[in-house]
Structure formats: C-alpha cells, structure tokens
C-alpha cells in the first residue's frame, strides 16, 4: 500500500508515473532505508523540507545498487504527483540549489516538450556548482547550467531513461516557441561596438618581405659572406705588428705533451757531411792566410838584407 500511486494521479506518457523509473531500480528504492524511514507517508508540504536537506544529486551507486536520497525523492514525487505550481516554485527557488535540481528533473520527466524548454532554459544562466555522485560512489563537481543542458540533450540521466522531447528547431518552425536569446548576446554586442570604436592602424608590410624583393636580392647573411673584405682592412691586418709577433712566436706547448713526445731521431749523415765541409773550408782559409803571411815575411827579410848590402855599398835602399 505504501508504494502505490495515489488514486487521483494522472497518467504520464500513457502509463503509471512510477513506471518512468525502471523496475529494478524502483525495487531497489523500495528496499532502501531512506525510502522506508524518510519517505513514508510524505506529503507535498513535507516534501519541501526533505528537498532542502539534500547535499548532493545522483542516481544509484555501489556494487549492490543503492539509490541516493535524490532518486528516492524523485520516485516519491512521481508517486504523490504534486501540483505543477509546486514544481515551478521548486525550479524558481534560488536559495537551495538541490531543490532546483529536483524540480528540473521532475519537470523533464513529466512535462511536455514545450514546458521543458520554457522552464529549464532560464536555468542555463545559473552557474553555481553542484555535487553529483558517480556509479562507483565517488563525487564530482558540476555546474547548474551543465546539469540542465544534460537534461535537455541526454537520453539517460541519473540512471533514469528520460522521455523523448521534440527538437527546439521544430517548435520554432511551428511558432510554438520563440527563438532563444542568450544572455551572452548583449556582452558580444558591447564587445563588437568597442572593437569598432578602436580600429587598429593598418600595418604596412616592409618591402623586404615582398616576394619580388625576395627573388631579386639575396639574403643579408649570404651577401655578407659573398663580399670580400675592403683593401684598407686587409692592409691594416697585414701591417699590424701584433700579427707579425704572433706569427713569429712559436706556440707554447704543455709540459706533459713535451714529456710524452718521443725523442728526436739522430741527425742524418748529410748533416755531418755539411759540418765536415764547413770545417775543411775554414782550415783551408787559415792555411792560405798563414802561407801569405809567411811569404810576406820572407819578402820583407829579403828586402831587409838587400838594403843592408846596398847601405854598405853606399846605394839607396829599396822601397
């Protein structure tokens, strides 16, 4: 008796409202502790208090498929079928975000395509964060506009198959729904006006980046390597005394390298031969000088004897 739908409830989508939730998940909800303790004999007035106590949204979780309190309250709303005005107040409530989530989910399940777009699209401007529970029991953060967008687009959400609704484009073509105006359009218009007022100055492309210039003249790097140095620069380099000193001074070598370097091989025979030849030339020069000196001395001695003899005879001496 406690799990039956109220007698005066209207059928939704041609069936019992509770049948919108699958039978396996529905039986898990009936067996859950939250359904038995918190949802027993719950009326539409008391449902608001339970919705305000919600801390997160989600479907079922865990290995034994436990339903969340959010899903239990959804099934309770399908069972008691509150008035549409109460659901609209749930959606318009700005103080409790999970009350809004509960009302949006119920409106998506039971409302027509026109009601779903009419009441859920204004919630796309709500950017508050909400907490949802995964199938494995972990939690993740989502925004309210993402939650509502998933309700309008997805076929299954929070482990409940959502009824099909018509495309918005079809409702616009039959003039049942006006074209949607986004809240960001005003900001985009303001941004466009500010960009028109601040027109950027035209940027002139330098001639060196033109294609014709690229074909005619080579790159400056290649041109630098193609040019030969000026004669003035060459002359200054050749005449600089520092260059001469550097070229004449032998490079210094490390002592370790000199130690590791093998000793020079013995001098060749040609070197000894040249040395002996130099010694012979020096000795021949000395002998020639000594012979010349001896000849001069002998000649002087002969002139001296001749002069002595001529002095005895009373003749003039020889020069």
TrEMBL record:
Amino acid composition bias (Basic residues), ranges on this chain: 224-256, 264-275
Superkingdom of the source species: Eukaryota
Presence of the UniProt keyword Nucleus in the record: yes
Protein name from the UniProt record: Pre-mRNA-splicing factor 38
Record's subcellular location: Nucleus
Family: Belongs to the PRP38 family.
Keywords: mRNA processing, mRNA splicing, Nucleus, Spliceosome
Region described as Disordered: spans on this chain: 186-319
PANTHER family, sorted: PRE-MRNA-SPLICING FACTOR 38A-RELATED
Main location: nucleus
Residue spans of biased composition, Acidic residues class: 186-201
Chain ranges passing through the membrane: none
Feature: compositional bias, Basic and acidic residues: 293-311
Record has Nuclease as a keyword: no
């Amino acid at each position: 008796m406690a799990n039956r739908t109220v007698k005066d409830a209207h059928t939704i989508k041609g069936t019992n409202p509770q049948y919108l939730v699958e039978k396996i998940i529905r039986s898990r909800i009936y067996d859950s502790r939250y359904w038995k303790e918190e949802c027993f004999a719950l009326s539409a007035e008391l449902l608001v208090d339970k919705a305000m106590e919600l801390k997160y949204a989600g479907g079922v979780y865990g290995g034994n498929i436990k339903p969340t309190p959010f899903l239990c309250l959804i099934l309770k709303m399908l069972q008691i079928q509150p008035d549409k005005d109460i659901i609209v107040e749930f959606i318009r409530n700005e103080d409790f975000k999970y009350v809004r989530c509960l009302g949006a989910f119920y409106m998506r399940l039971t409302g027509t395509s026109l009601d779903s777009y009419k009441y859920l699209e204004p919630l796309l401007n709500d950017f508050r964060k909400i907490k949802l529970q995964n199938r494995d029991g972990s939690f993740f953060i989502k925004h309210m506009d993402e939650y509502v967008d998933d309700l309008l687009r997805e076929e299954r959400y929070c482990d409940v198959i959502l009824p099909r609704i018509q495309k918005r484009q079809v409702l616009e073509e039959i003039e049942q729904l006006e074209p949607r105006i986004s809240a960001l359009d005003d900001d985009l218009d303001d941004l466009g006006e500010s960009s028109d007022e601040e027109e950027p100055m035209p940027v002139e492309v330098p001639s060196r980046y033109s294609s014709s210039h690229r074909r005619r003249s080579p790159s400056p790097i290649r041109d630098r390597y193609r040019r030969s140095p000026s004669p003035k620069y060459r002359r200054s380099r050749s005449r600089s005394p520092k260059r001469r000193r550097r070229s004449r001074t032998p490079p210094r070598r490390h002592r370790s390298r000199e130690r590791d370097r093998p000793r020079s091989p013995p001098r060749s025979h040609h070197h000894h031969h040249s040395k002996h030849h130099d010694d012979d030339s020096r000795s021949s020069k000395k002998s020639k000088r000594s012979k010349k000196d001896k000849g001069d001395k002998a000649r002087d001695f002969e002139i001296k004897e001749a002069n002595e003899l001529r002095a005895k005879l009373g003749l003039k001496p020889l020069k």
